[in-house]
Amino acid sequence: MSVLAAIAVLALLIVVHELGHFLAARLQGIHVNRFSIGFGPILWKYQGPQTEYALRAIPLGGFVGFPDDDPDSKFAENDPDLLSNRPILDRAIVISAGVIANLLFAYLVFVTQFASVGVPQSFVPQPGVLVPQVISDSSPAAEAGIKSGDIILAVNGNSLQNDEDTVKDLIAVIQNSPGEPVDLTLRRLNRELEVTVVPEAGPDGKALIGVQLQPNGTIDYRRANNPIEVFTLAAAEFQNMLVRTVQGFAMLITNFSEMAGQVGGPVKIVEQGAGLAQNNALSLFPFTAIISINLAIINILPLPALDGGQLAFLLVEAVRGRPLPTRIQENVMQTGLFLLLGLGIFLIVRDTTQLDVFQQLMQ
């Protein structure tokens, strides 16, 4: 069920993104002839009065289609309600609406969390240390088989308690063991595992295994005092997560060689979401929000086949006073789409081969 929940979250966020484009166009009276989730062959479709709605085979995103590019379009080339005939601002609103929809949705996720679950009041510690994220697939932790969502119960045979120094104690053992095996007892889902990890010395001489660590436990919640508290707390949480995500992308761009291992595709996202949801279903709220924010930031990057790439074309058009030749735009977008699909397939294959089920089959 946790895997299905994570898949549902990813599918929902794609729908939200494409719905942003769709509504921004329709509310401005712009013709839309296709609304598709996924790419490639059509698995299911419904023809509405104006738009064809479809579910396609390759679940790497989606698209909103416009009759401007349809040779069989029933609309005249000079129709003022074709997207290409609209002013630059109208087109920019349509193109950026997907990003705005994902950001707004992330904020509403926090609003829903604080309104329905409540406001965090106190933390109830439990034995062990939670691993919310394995930072890189090439890290010592990943090579040892540690996964996001694991709970470290013991280190070198010594049980980890639930006091405030537990995380510090575990970090101290790791930092003081460069190149030396460290035995860990993990709880993953409903079973215990024994793994051995060999920490690597970092730039400062302290050993690292490449994970984030945080106290294990549950949070007690209280009802919000009023709606203003809900919206205020949601805004603060959204801002904090947005800033940290942007900083993460900045680190990826400026230090790509070391951070590239953190890039994950749909399979990795589902695996991490399932692990978190299995340990605490409430973690689906922040998981949904952070994936929605990541989807927004990725799409706003000025890369071909992404929303940011199309906005870059509009910027060039605004500066030149006329758009780039259609052939140039099509060649750039098709190349970008090919590379994007190639990257997506590569990430799916790589992440699938690292799943526990696949590793067991290969043994």
Walk me through this protein's architecture.
This protein has 363 residues and is an alpha+beta fold. The chain has three domains: 1-23 and 90-118 and 228-300, no CATH class; 31-85, no CATH class; 120-222, Roll (Pdz3 Domain). 50% of the residues lie in helices and 22% in strands. The chain has eleven helices and ten strands. Strands 3, 4, 5, 6, 7 and 10 form a six-stranded antiparallel sheet that branches. The protein has a two-stranded antiparallel sheet with strand order 1-2. The chain has a two-stranded antiparallel ribbon with strand order 8-9. Helix 1 (2-27) runs antiparallel to helix 2, helix 1 packs across helix 8 and helix 2 (88-116) packs antiparallel against helix 8 (284-300). The longest helix is centred in the first third of the chain and has 29 residues, at 88-116. The two termini are 26 Å apart. Mean pLDDT is 81; it is low at 348-353 and 355-363.
What are the main properties of this structure?
single chain, alpha+beta, Pdz3 Domain, 3 domains, 6-stranded antiparallel β-sheet, 11 helices, 10 strands
Distance between the termini: 26 Å
Pick out the low-confidence regions: 348-353, 355-363
Q: Approximately what portion of the residues adopt beta-strand conformation?
A: 15-25%
CA-atom Rg in angstroms: 23 Å
Averaged pLDDT = 81
- The secondary structure category is alpha+beta
- DSSP helix fraction: 40-55%
Overall geometry comes to elongated
The major pleated sheet works out as:
6 strands, antiparallel
Number of domains: 3
Order of helices and strands: HEEHEHEEHEEEEEHHHHHHH
User: What is the count of helical runs?
Assistant: 11
Number of strands: 10
